[in-house]
Model the fold of this input.
Amino acid sequence: VSVSGIRGHVGADLTPELVSRYAAALGAWSRSTFSGAMSDRRPAVVLGRDARTSGSMFARSAAAGLMSVGVDVIDLGIVPTPTVQLAVEHHHAAAGLILTASHNPIEWNALKFVGPDGIFLDHEAWQAVLSLAEQGPPRTGWSEIGVVQEDSKAIDRHLNGILALPMIDVAAIRARRFAVALDCVRGAGASAILPLLDRLSCRVQGINLQMDGRFPHPPEPVPENLGELGELVRKTRADIGLAVDPDVDRLALVDET
Done:
């Protein structure tokens, strides 16, 4: 337990019961801070995850915890961490919850907590969530239970935003038809990196693109873990190699050397 969130070994430290309780605490906190122009509707929390094998189980636990305190859930499914942050802003949500242990090994999972501004909670807000989790968050009755809706367009919106950035010359990139070698370590990366490269007219040779969370090597994209990608760059004479971690908030660039 730290300002970065809750992290633990799946089935030992991190259980569905614990995930549900901390999700409920985030939901209760978001209800207490949700006000202003959106006060005529029930607060919503955006939920997303990486591809770890425990993610589906924990997503259900988290959704139940959020619903139990009268908060709606906007479920993005398997998406990059930054996509969740942007979706919180897009939906004017009260908070976001990301189920990912980022670059940590396969036996880990974690909860990351995002405020209504799309930024991770600061110390004061995090302490308030912790306090609610320790006290036991106030649950709602039958008439105020939250509902779940899915948002399948979050990645598309994210990519549209990237390609609209003025410093990116999309036409020039497309004209070059770059050859790209890609390693997504069987995490969430293929959900966003592949369509991004496709929209940039890149020619892609990929490894570990399945999104099943069964990492074929330690998932942190540091040199000692990227030997296979280095070989792919050389073998295919790629212009560049890209490696991401399981929740796609870390990127490594690999050249022909």
Q: What stands out?
A: The beta strands are 6-9, 44-49, 72-78, 95-99, 108-114, 148-150, 179-183, 203-207, 240-244, 251-254.
